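User: Structure tokens for both sequences below?

Assistant:
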Amino acid sequence: MRKNQLKIICFIGSLFSIVSCKQLNQTDVEKLLTKNPVTIKVHNSIKEINSISANVKVFSKFNRNTKDFEQTGEYRMAIKEIDGRICTRIDQNDTNGQKTARTIISDSKSAVIYNPFTNTVQSKFNLPEKENTALDFLTASPITGRINLEQIKKESKRLNFDMTEDSETNGLLISIPAELVKTNTGESCISAKVCLDETSETINEVELVMLQEDGSTVTSSVRSVYEEKDGELIKIGTITVIETQNPNLLSGYDDNITIYNSTDDIPEISDAEFQQLSADEEIYEIPDVIIGNPADMSEIITQIELYDYIELNAVEDSQFKLLFE
């Protein structure tokens, strides 16, 4: 893997140790990229990008079983700026052969759900306006992944957000007041942080820590993966890690049950014992072994989205025509 061309954005300096990157290391992503190499094709100038399209593969991993990352989804994505509107199109794959996959086209004002097999519009509706736009200045371009760094610094200072800079990594950590974070019923925000890379002017990672009604703490982090193309960093995927720490235990489990926290903890038997158990039909295969205390509902779910074929400046306006009809 060309390490200089792969950039998994996460801070590792001492100033940023509170934003954890321990659940996923660079090797995990490199393995997936080796099996699913990324192709980037540029139309016209890479310095002026107005659209992006890509095949997106979704891989998931659950820390409570012994399985490695598995592909759990795939779709086609297209994003383009048209007359100042950021238009997005998602084409789902027809994985079950029932021709039920849908195409979803949207911008900030409206959305269309379309069935490409029957050539019919299933639904068209207006999107609700944002209730709180106070944090809009922290968003990045969905096309290039770039941010307006100077505006973010200016607004963060004006709003008296806590900002920590690291001169060695050229990173900026911004803490967001919990009261500005939108929450669902029954949950509250403990903390919110945004990590920026001042060199590439991109958002590295967003971390939210939420307290649920049952006492569980859910830490969600979203990071970006970039690859260098003709001197420019191009976003080639995202890494989402959702870690739940649940203090409650399920009832009904024997307290004396043997708990294995990893496959290394499981004792091995000899070949002779295996052959005897097989002959007695007292052995069977368990394809998905659960690790840890079965009564413990704490877990870590990791999802990686990788773009396996990217085209820049190749999206036609016609792909979004249903929005304008």
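Moving on to the next sequence.
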Amino acid sequence: MSLLSRSPAGAGLTVATTVAMLCALAPAGAAEVYYQPLLQLSTQYNTNLDLSPIPAEKRSTEGYYADAATTVGIATPTAETTLQPRVLYNYYPSATDRNRLEAFLNGNGRYSGQRDRFSWYGTFDHRDDVNAEQPGAADQNTVNPGTGTNTPTTGHPAIGVTRDYLIVDPTYTHSLTPLSGIGVAGEYQFMGYSREDSGHIGFDFYQARMFYSKTVDLRTDFSFGVFGNHYTARFGDARSNSGGAQGNVGYNWTQVLHSNLSASVQQTDFKETRDSGNVSLTSHPWSVVLNTVYDAGATTKYSIYLGRAIFPSSVGGLAQIDQARAQYDHDLSERLHFTGAVRVFRDRTVSGIADPNYRNYATASVRGQYMLTRRIFIASSFTYVYQKYKFDPASADASVVNVSIGYRGLERQH
């Protein structure tokens, strides 16, 4: 597999392109093909473009952005595939070192047979490191909501550095009865940097999982299983092996209100080879996440996320993130839409090369969008970002004001 080479710049893009091509070859009999384009031009003013804690290095500047994406879908009676390629150009007249073309690709698919079901989702992005280190409050991934929201980085941005990040998750389920099934799932993650150092460590991460799932009644479903994973750093000689168990319970309070509770525990054996000798560490990280979503169709939606997650990171091993997120979407009228979101987290190393200088991060945003026509809109937003490290004396913050105009094609007509 090409990703096993030590050439991070193109490896993630190669796999992402291959996945997209394979997934586009969904069964074509009686296929319906649809697409929804999105074009947007924006300008914004940022009081601390690089989120620097040093007053002399803070840059207050305006920026201009051209954003183009297309959601493409292929649907048949038994299968459905969705792909969304996107490109974003960042232009700063007074900070030309931050000019950058970023690229994204999101996709998902599913196939349903009489007793067998296969699904997958994938996310790839090629981003400026400073932008990637500052995750937003609102979830903007419309194809795979929630995917990639745990930023697998150290929080120390490097100007002029780009990263490639890939996640691919396939799942196969076989129905034992109409209400129960067994399955296997996999995950692959790749991170590569244009320039690597102890704070920007590329990695390969593999995980396999076996599970049993059951629907108890119209309100309740659950699953439990076992998993194993392997992490290999692309800078330095560090690796880890983990094994554990996880469970999940879902509950429908009403037809529009759903909660999901997941938990896992694992044993992680970490090893690193250094000039001074070998380092070995065994830890037992755990995770618990509660997610609640209220979705009243086109008028109101809110989501709340609270918990701890374990994930592969650029620290040279695994990291944990203790996080709280909330997002509220509401149509104030047929043309006017409001979005408010807040996010607070602390991430730190579980087992890795980087030091335990964890960061506290908080961001909040409000956005209003007005439809001039069914396809053309104007929007404005305000975002605040705060960051502080445990062992650093100074904190950093930034305020961002954005104004945009855009074109969005009509959604798929069922």
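User: Anything stand out in the second?

Assistant: The helical segments are 8-24, 129-132.
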